[in-house]
Write a structure and sequence with these properties.
Elements: E1 2-9, H1 14-28, E2 34-42, E3 48-56, H2 60-68, H3 71-74, E4 78-86
Antiparallel strand pairs: 1-3, 1-4, 2-3
Domain YCII-related: 2-87
Organism: Rhizobium jaguaris
Family: Belongs to the YciI family.
Length: 94
């Protein structure tokens, strides 16, 4: 199944975002989750205001565990995190 995590940044944690950015990237690239796509959400000024991760998982619990260990989650960089099963219905691949 595909799962999507949508996380919105906590503007009061901009310093923590910079501090933990490399750890966050290492976590995402660790191979512990089969990530299909991932990247920042940008605000109108082009600044990072959150992030999206789409992963191929066995269960939503797998995504919840992986997310809970993300340095951005552990250090409050995100003000909110939501995880959902995702079923794409439109694709450029047919």
């Amino acid at each position: 199944m595909l799962a999507v995590r949508v996380a919105l940044s906590n503007p009061e944690k901009a310093d923590a975002r910079e501090t933990y950015l490399q750890d966050h990237k290492r976590h995402l690239r660790s191979g512990r989750l089969r990530i299909v796509q991932s990247g920042p959400i940008l605000d109108e000024a082009g600044e990072g205001s959150g992030g999206v991760v789409v992963a191929d998982v066995v269960s939503l619990e797998e995504m919840h565990r992986f997310s809970a260990e993300d340095p951005f989650v552990l250090h409050g960089v995100y003000s909110s995190v939501s995880i959902h099963e995702w079923r794409p219905t439109i694709s450029d691949r047919g």
